Structures are given as C-alpha cells and as structure tokens.
Amino acid sequence: MIPAQAPDTTSLYRSAEGQRQAMAAYARSLQRLKVPWASRFVSTRFGETHVLTAGPADGPTVILPHGWNTNAGGWWPVINDLARSFRVYAPDTVGQAGWSAPTRPSLRGPGLGEWLADVVDGLGLAEAAFVGGSGGAWLILKLVDVAPERVCRAVLLSPAGLVRPRLQFLLRAATVGILRPNEHTPLRYARLAAPPPLTVDVKLVEEGAALVRWHRTQLPPPRLADRTLRRLTAPTLVLVGEHECIFDRDAVLRRARRQIPGLTAAHRVAGAGHNMTFERPDEVNARLAEFLQA
Predict the structure, then answer these.
(1) Do residues 135 and 103 touch, judged by C-beta distance below 8 A?
(2) Residue (of 254, 282, 256) closest to 269 by Cα position
(3) Cβ atoms 65, 33 nearer than 8 A
(4) Which of 61, 200, 103, 265 is nearest to 53 (CA)?
(5) Position 6 confidence tier, pLDDT thresholds 50, 70, 90
(6) What pLDDT shows up at residue 4?
(7) CA-to-CA distance for 290 and 266, rounded, in angstroms?
(8) Residue 262 backbone phi and psi in degrees, to 5
(9) Whole-prediction pTM value?
(10) Residue 223 confidence (pLDDT)
(11) Mind listing the pLDDT tens digit for each residue in 103-144?
C-alpha cells in the first residue's frame, strides 16, 4: 500500500493504526484515477517527495500542489481530465498526509517555496504551469516568492493567502472537532465547508474520513504580503466558488485584481464552494484546459 521507498511518516499521525487507515484512504482515492499513472520520488532539501505522474510524456507540463492537510490523491477529478493532453505531476507536500517526508518547514519563512522549487528541479524542469487549490495555491505563491521564473502560468483555485480565513468558519471548525477529531468530525467538517445549497457526497467523505480523523492537522497557511503577490507576473487565473465559506470570496477577488500583475482573469464559479473541483468538475476542468492551452 505504501511505496517501499516512502519515508517514515508515523509522527504525522495520532497512532500507527491511524496512519494505516489514512494511507488506505489515500489508496482508495487513487483507485478513482481512470488514466494510467505512476509514482516516483524526487529529492529535496526537506526530504524525499512523492509525486504522482500521468499523461503523455511529451505533453505540456502542469504541476498540481494539493490542498492543506491532504495529499495528491484529491486531484483525481482534475487528473482524469488534464492527463489526456498534459503531462501532470502531483506532489505530496512534505509534512502532510501523503507519502513524502514528514518535515514541516516554517509557514512564515521561504522553506515551502524552496521545497517546491526543489521538486521542479527534481523533475528535471526549468519551468511549468501550476494549478493549486486552497493551500496548494498558497504554495504556488510561496514558490513565486523565491523563484518566480519557475512559473510560466498559474491557476489559483479558492486560494489561501490572499485573505485570512473567516473567524466564524474557524470557530465552527473548532466546534466540530477539527483540532481534536473524532468519528463524527469528517462529515461535520465536510458539511461546514459545503454549506447549503451545496450538498455533500457522503460516500466520498467516508472514503477519505481517516485523513481527517488521524492526521495531525497543520495550522492554516498565513496571509501573504503584497510584495509576494506582486512577484506573480506569469499569466494567472483565479477562480473562487460562489458559495466559498472559508474565505471572503469578494475580498479574494479584489486583492487578486489589485496585487497580482499577471492576472488575466478572476471569476466566481457558480454553484461551487471551497472544493470546486469536486462540486463543479466539468466547468472547472474546462476553464483549466482553456487557460493552460492559451
């Protein structure tokens, strides 16, 4: 289930059994991939990093940093579509719920940007297009802070880092037990993140519940300085769900329009919340393909 060369990540989980269950959940998400895929590891200054690969070897390259406290398996709705035309790389962020090293660089320093630059180096690339969701979008901005030349295009989905999370959401997340999760927390948190009129796919939540239940949650990434956003000069698309609940949707769009020099478009996605790749996969994938092929 866990690749033989994967680093020991036991410290990231509340118990060894919890780690086993979380990795089983990761494996279940990979079963949803409908395209040929492979695993590989690249070396970084923060330890070995696991990367899912898919798509034609000679296709345009896109790198997919995943959302916070999850892993690359959550990209399956996007990989199934993009990998028909693009060479897709989806790394597991170090210190999170995948098969990469358990190292957790400081969220305040350049470490995670340097880590992502090391991943690009390890893949043998000079530059790439990037698509990141939530904390993954924040990682793209951290990369831009240290090596903007590595990003030739960027798509930021429900991006963290432009504004602080809503205090009301954080308080509600605490009440459903996100910091000390129990068996009820995964579904309660999913419903919190997908408020009405959105609905929750209970089966998907159950498949991934062990990640929420057993992974030691890393605190949300902080708001980024204007100078960081201004370093993103590559063509950039920002998408925010109509029913985004973690961040103030309109404030995200305003700051993106004001501070990102490379911004070519910033849109609300109708009928979507924070997890738009699950809630509106066809529309999001179509927008991604159109932008990345431009």
Answers:
(1) no
(2) 282
(3) no
(4) 61
(5) confident
(6) 74
(7) 14
(8) -85, 0
(9) 0.97
(10) 98
(11) 999 999 999 999 999 999 999 999 999 999 999 999 999 999
Report the C-alpha gap between 220 and 69 in whole angstroms. 9
pLDDT tens-digit series, residues 24-77: 999 999 999 999 999 999 999 999 999 999 999 999 999 999 999 999 999 999
Give 36-55 as a DSSP string. Answer: -EEEEEEEETTEEEEEEEES
Instruction: Calculate mean pLDDT across residues 219-228.
Output: 97
Please state, in angstroms and rounded to a whole number, the distance separating the CA atoms of residues 27 and 103.
22
Q: Is residue 84 within 8 Å of residue 60, measured between CB atoms? A: no
| CA-to-CA dists, residue 271 to 63, 199, 280, 282, angstroms | 26, 10, 7, 12
Q: Is 190 helix (H, G, I), strand (E, B) or coil?
A: helix
Which residues are paired to 48 by β-bridges? Answer: 43
Rounded-to-integer distance, Cα 221 and Cα 117, Å: 18
Q: For residue 1, is pLDDT > 60? A: no
Instruction: Compute the C-alpha angle 193/201/89, nearest 5°.
Output: 80
CATH of 10-293 among 3.50.50.60, 3.40.50.1820, 3.10.270.10, 3.10.180.10: 3.40.50.1820
pLDDT score for 110 = 98
Domain boundary assignment for the chain = 10-293
pLDDT of res. 3: 80
8 A C-beta contact, residue 78 and residue 64 = yes
pLDDT of residue 5: 77
Q: What does the block give as tokens for 120?
A: 């690009």
Instruction: Give the C-alpha separation, 133 to 64, whole Å.
Output: 8
Distance CA 275, CA 130 (A): 17
**Packed helices 135-146 and 111-122: angle between N→C axes, nearest 10 degrees:** 80
Helical spans, DSSP H, in 128-269:
135-146, 167-175, 185-193, 202-214, 226-229, 249-259
